[in-house]
Amino acid sequence: MNPEPFSSLHFHLDSEGSKSLAKLGRWAKVLGSINIVLGGFNLVFSLPYFLPGNDMSFLAIPTIGAAAFLIYLGLQLTGSASHLRFAVISESDGEFAAALDQIRKYLFISSLAYLGSLIIILTLVIIASALGVGFEELLKNEPGPVSI
Q1: How far apart, in whole angstroms, are the C-alpha atoms of residue 112 and residue 116?
Q2: Is 93 within the bounds of a domain?
Q3: pTM tops 0.85, yes or no
């Protein structure tokens, strides 16, 4: 028995489906380009951290990591846009499957990044609330001066 349910993918599209795939490819290219540009800006703005005498040089590595992450996600999307464009032009099932695989990778990595960010933020909020850091102003019952 074959472990894969299908040995190949076959997609039959009408003109409306081709237009939808072309639009998906354009938006994937736009979003991928935005990610690449944001990653490039992040990389350029992290360069001053490497200057001698900078007290915040410990931020250089995470900033470059974030830039590389954004650029990688952008490359995934622009690659999937290219596969989608080629799949529509040549009606290639393999190219369409490759585009779907790259979009799947983008969505998976993005969801892991969002989940990781949520866990880090919640952990910091729990630690800050346990230590009582920054909550003194919220716990005051004294009315403040009202100026008109």
Answers
A1: 6
A2: yes
A3: no
